[in-house]
Structures
1.
Amino acid sequence: MKVVIFDMDGTLIDSKKDITISINYVRKTHYDLPPLDEQFIVDVINMPVRNLPELFYNTPVYQKKDRDLFEEHYYEQCIANPYLYEGIAETLYQLKSLHVSLNVATNAPTLFAQRMLSHLHVSELFDTIIGADKAGASKPDPKMLEIILSNYGTKHLPHKTWMVGDNSKDIDAAKSISISSIFATWGFSSEGEADYVASHPLKIVDIVK
């Protein structure tokens, strides 16, 4: 059995426009702050260490009202503009044709991940779509990966499992349970270190073969 686990935002889909719109909605509604641009938000999300509430809302910790408003707004916003990166759909179907088991592990809430991937007509290709809320931990903690792999009756499958992501958190999660990692350069980050580096989604097919 071969298993590929994908990150979502910045790996499968470009979602930065809608994330930015919802963050700026909270900034304006609760704090009357000016809007942040997409690139700043992407850069912040990809920082290995950062305080998101401080950088997004000028608060030292997430306020419940901010989290609630963001999630309420993003539930509708998240399917307004996302799109699959070029080559992703073809890659997923090619992997399925090779009988590779596909999964998603995202730090986004599971509800949003399922909603967005369903909207883009690819949710049915994945055995498991799991967010940090279901695992109780965000990457680089490997809990989501362990849950996915436990569904196949094993903790991990050395040399037969790959984690694909655009962030060091994805790569570190894979390393911590000794599975292979593939860094995706087409998403939110153009440079990174992993067992493999893929400049186009179809390169994943070659690696897995």
Note: The longest strand covers residues 101-106.
2.
Amino acid sequence: MWSVCKKELRQFFSSLTGYIAIIVFLLVNGLMLFVFDNNILDFGYATLDRFFQLAPWVFLLLIPAITMRSFAEEFKTGTFEILQTRPLSRWQIVFGKYFGSLIVVIIALLPTLIYYFTIQKLSAGEGLDTGATIGSYIGLLFLAAVFTAVGICSSSFTNNAVIAFILSIAACALFYYGFSAISLLPAFSGNADYYLEMIGIDFHYRSISRGVVDTRDLVYFLSVIVLFLAITNRNLLRR
């Protein structure tokens, strides 16, 4: 499994594409937080709420760009057949690809800790709420893990990386905000809107971001990850 993971990491960082994706992610967040209108410095108090609201939407483009070639490129070039000759089970291949892509996302996320220390140094009062910030980062990690699973799954449906990219964006957007948007419709007012919203990722992400790590949220995230990885495994079996 780890051999596949290392291969995925080498493949991603062997070209400028990997570095450009990470740089663009950090640049967009940095400009939105510190340069453009309504930035953090204009708030008058220490907060990273804007970053945690913005990061999921940037992830909608970053993570599909990272995962789109995972299986699609293997199918297109015919190297998937070579990969199958190795003493690896399908699950080991899936998990290798998954963790390889997830590590890249974590590498992109680590430099954002600079935002935390910068705001702490600039604040005149008590600074940031450390507990809420840690909870938000945990939520962001689980969100990245789910989006990565969706991206890997999308890549296993096709041998075209562009199609995998589009499928991944559509699926991630649906699971992140789609159910919350549907729950706002008047037809679902009452109890139905609450349960519809619970199906979406945004509901559980906001729950963890408050600084309280609820078991129900963890079970939800893990269940969605397992679901999409199981679909990926099924797609490999069909091939």
Note: The two ends are 20 Å apart (CA to CA).
3.
Amino acid sequence: MHFGILGAGSIGCYVGGMLAANGQKVTFVGRPAMAKRLAAGMDLTRYDGLARELAPGSIDFSTDAEALARCDVIVVCVKSGDTQEAGNILNGVVAANATIVSLQNGISNADQLREVLPGRTVLAAMVPFNVARIGESRFHCGTQGTLAIENSVPAEEIARCLTQAQVPAEVTQDIQAVLWGKLAMNLNNAVNALSGLPLKAQLSQRDYRKVLAASVAEALAAMKAAGITPAKIGKVRPQIIPKVVGLPDWLFRLVAANMLKIDKEARSSMAEDLDAGREPEIDWLNGEIVRLGEQHGVATPVNARITELVKQAFDVGKSPRLSGKELLAMLQI
């Protein structure tokens, strides 16, 4: 299989890099700045000590999507706000029999791609792990989890290639339930960006977790009204998140030890976007909950206010570094 990565950011570089390190043919398409960084090679590391390296000059990288024309599988890793544009670009480039896989946050990206790529095989997928770029060309996976791909014939082979490359992957029969489950967990991205802390440090503080609990409780109420049952992600059932994360610190450490299996370097993708000056995906995360609540008559004031605060932070260009207590007060929790 010849894999193409459209949107060579942290996730795209890690997934594509692991495939390339395992001998798969991989073509990366991204920005000139990333092309310059990766000319010197790529280092891939993981929370459990696993490490891979791609030598200088060994990475097939292009800034032109035409390079994806011969790929069998196109992995779309662009930000949600760029999905429509990515689909339009691919429509004039990729082979008719290519499989397109959306490795993006949110619920609706695969549907958007299908609209602009009629007749193509487009698969939704869910990435459970966090990847941070450290330095110029090191991509570090800081959390565990199994990537899920929408059920189809090509999905089986794609999952096999990923798993062989040490990116655990499986095919799921109900990708929508999985995406909603991941969205519930991704509501912490905004809390993390507003805190300015690494993920583990932020989740270790009860006041931040109270914010997350309130955000997820609203999401679950909106999902219930819409008839949506979010799937378990790894060992975590979304339905228990509000109760578990609201526990006192000492009890949370005992009950939710798996949630804290995050190394000290892990940060949310939204925090990375804030540092890099990229547009936030807040409208596809907390904003999705606000829209769902409006459609079904469920109030979502916490998610609405968090959406506002994140947009304000991105307007300024840096994290407000709010303490948990300050954030609780601003949200009136």
Note: The CA atoms of residues 227 and 257 lie 31 Å apart.
